[in-house]
Design goal:
Distance between the termini: 29 Å
Number of domains: 2
Structural class: alpha/beta
Strand content: 5-15%
Largest sheet: 5 strands, mixed
Order of helices and strands: HEEHEEHHEH
Number of strands: 5
Number of helices: 5
Radius of gyration: 22 Å
Strand order of the largest sheet: 1-5-3-4-2
Helix content: 25-40%
Length: 253
């Protein structure tokens, strides 16, 4: 069952946007799906989904929003070019059960971070984006260029060009990824402790002049689990991002 989006923009050619942030205990998550791939799922055309605190815009404003797309990129959701700022366009507070449900869905069902409906919508001024990364090709999926922002202050002086990025959604997605990583770290620590206990027991047996040349059978298995958890920590951090022109959006919203 799909969650009902309280606020979205939709291009005339694309499917309605249901934010994965809109989570309840009985809501099917949009990002559930087959394991992650570098290509997005087929779609009718480039929709321009954008969460807004004003609700659903009429057709005219949706068309303007479609014209506000600057670029389609990827970024590291844990370490984006600038810190993400949530709450202005999607003020709904984080739901801990929702974060847990979303994290479990990523692990059990896979996730599709380059599917258009799953991309993180953000607002930037076009002059703050490095021209080398600008692309409007939704079909690039995970091969889309990483988002790059220009460095240095505006006009060579004053405050930094960009200090934060306004995100119009994605807070639950980010929190779910953080939970996956934190859970993996805890399990790695537990397994490393278990390896230490096993190795210590082996040392004590040696002191008793027992012949224990081979490594305990469970240690390779534990090390393999640790390696898998290390991979898990990096498997959910790269996401597709739709960059909208901040001035255009502010004007029409």
């Amino acid at each position: 069952m799909r969650g009902k989006s309280s606020a979205h923009l939709q291009a005339q050619s694309g499917p309605p946007f249901t934010s994965p942030d809109e989570i309840s205990a009985d809501t099917h998550l949009e990002t559930c799906g087959p394991p992650v791939s570098n290509t997005p799922a087929p779609h009718a055309g480039p929709s321009t989904s954008l969460a807004s605190s004003r609700g659903v815009f009429d057709g005219g404003l949706e068309e303007k929003a479609s014209q506000a797309i600057i670029s389609v990129n990827t970024f590291n959701i844990i370490d984006p070019p600038r810190p993400l700022k949530f709450g202005k366009f999607n003020p709904r507070p984080l739901s801990n059960p929702g974060v847990k449900e979303l994290a479990e869905s990523f692990l059990e069902d896979g996730f599709m971070p380059f599917k258009q409906e799953s991309m993180i919508p953000i607002l930037l001024n076009v002059e703050d984006i490095d021209e080398s990364c600008i692309s409007k090709d939704f079909l690039l999926g995970g091969s889309a260029p990483p988002l790059k922002l220009k460095d240095g202050p505006k006009n060579g002086k004053g405050k930094a060009r960009v200090t934060k990025i306004d995100a119009c959604g994605g807070n639950h997605r980010l929190s779910a990824v953080k939970k996956i990583r934190a859970d993996a770290d805890r399990e790695i620590k537990r397994l490393e402790s278990q390896i230490g206990v096993t190795a210590k027991a082996k040392g004590k047996r040696k002191q008793k002049e027992e012949v224990v040349d081979a490594e305990p059978a469970d240690i390779p298995s534990l090390r393999q689990k640790i390696a898998e958890l290390e991979v898990r920590k990096t498997s959910f951090i790269t996401w597709g991002v739709i960059v909208y022109d901040a001035r255009t959006f502010y004007f029409f919203s």
